[in-house]
Amino acid sequence: MSVTVDLSSKTALVMGVANARSLGWAIAEQLLAAGCRVGFSYQGERLKPELEKLTAGHSGVWIQQADATNEEEMTALFARAKEEFGTLDMLVHSIAFAPRGAMENRFLDTSPEDWNTALSVSAYTLVSAARHAEPLLNDGASIVSLTYHASQQVVPKYNVMGVAKAALEAATRYLAADLGLREIRVNTISAGPMRTIAARSIPGFSGLYDKGARNAAFGRNATPGEVGKLALFLLSDLGTGVTGQTMYVDAGLSIMTVREGQE
Ligand code: NAD
After folding, report:
1. pTM above threshold 0.85
2. Helices (H), strands (E): how many in the chain?
3. 17 close to ligand 1 (CB < 6 Angstrom)
4. Average pLDDT in the 22-39 region?
């Protein structure tokens, strides 16, 4: 069965593409293939050339620098979205950060500064982006972010980022309630381990990745392309009626303890 999604009359803002491996880019590729007009924001000027290269050749695309924790830059970003598109149908939040020290030491030793940074960048920015977007969002619009199973179970070294993801998932439910009467949907995708820049900064990530591949129900990890397809479902009209949810695309890793023979 093939389902064709036509987003040629739709607009999206994707926040958090660093390079071709970024999960935000896997989502953007699906949106662009469906004909959507897409704006991108990137954290700092260092990332601009890569994003320019990725988006070259796609029509209806614009890019703008915006650190998601910087109120002035967020105001300017959504002013640009208004100028370019008038209104928005989709918002993708694909942003996370925790200081490396907070992921190397014991969780017990998390400093208030590192706690605030991780929670602010990785969870509060979803609330801030949704608030900035609200006046532009059409009724029936859809917001998607990215989370990870360390919000539910202890994953070694994930530490304060696990707490940040739990906050992101709870924020998803509260935002879904606030925006629900306009049928604006807010969901978060819980992705299995994938080799991206953010993942590489997690101590021991490659062991986690290999273990995921051995223990997942599919005997492999999920792929960025599969994240992109779930996002397309949630962002398009295929996903009407779904809001406030954490949806897993992890090749069945979170349902397993260990795969038989892998103990
Ligand atoms: P990535 O490094 O490609 O993307 C992370 C992005 O966050 C980068 O573009 C970075 O510039 C941006 N960012 C960080 N701080 C920012 C700030 N203050 N303002 C604006 N942007 C900022 O890595 P990724 O793995 O694609 O991460 C995207 C999302 O997917 C994150 O929320 C991450 O936690 C989530 N996720 C990743 C995995 C994985 O294994 N890679 C698994 C589950 C969830």
Report:
1. yes
2. 10, 7
3. yes
4. 98
Nearest Cα residue to 125 out of 101, 105, 102, 145 = 145
Tell me the CATH number of domain 11-255, given options 3.40.50.720, 3.40.50.2000, 1.10.357.10, 3.30.720.120.
Answer: 3.40.50.720
CA of 91 to the centre of ligand 1 (A): 15
- DSSP string covering 141-153: EEEEEEE-GGGTS
Which atom of ligand 1 lies at the shortest distance from residue 161's CA?
34
248 as an active site residue: the answer is no
174 catalytic residue (yes or no): no
Convert the pLDDT of each residue in 230-245 to its tens digit: 999 999 999 999 999 9
80 touches 63 (CB < 8 A): no
Residue 117 near ligand 1, beta carbon < 6 Å: no
Q: Report CA 18 to chain centroid distance, whole Å.
A: 12
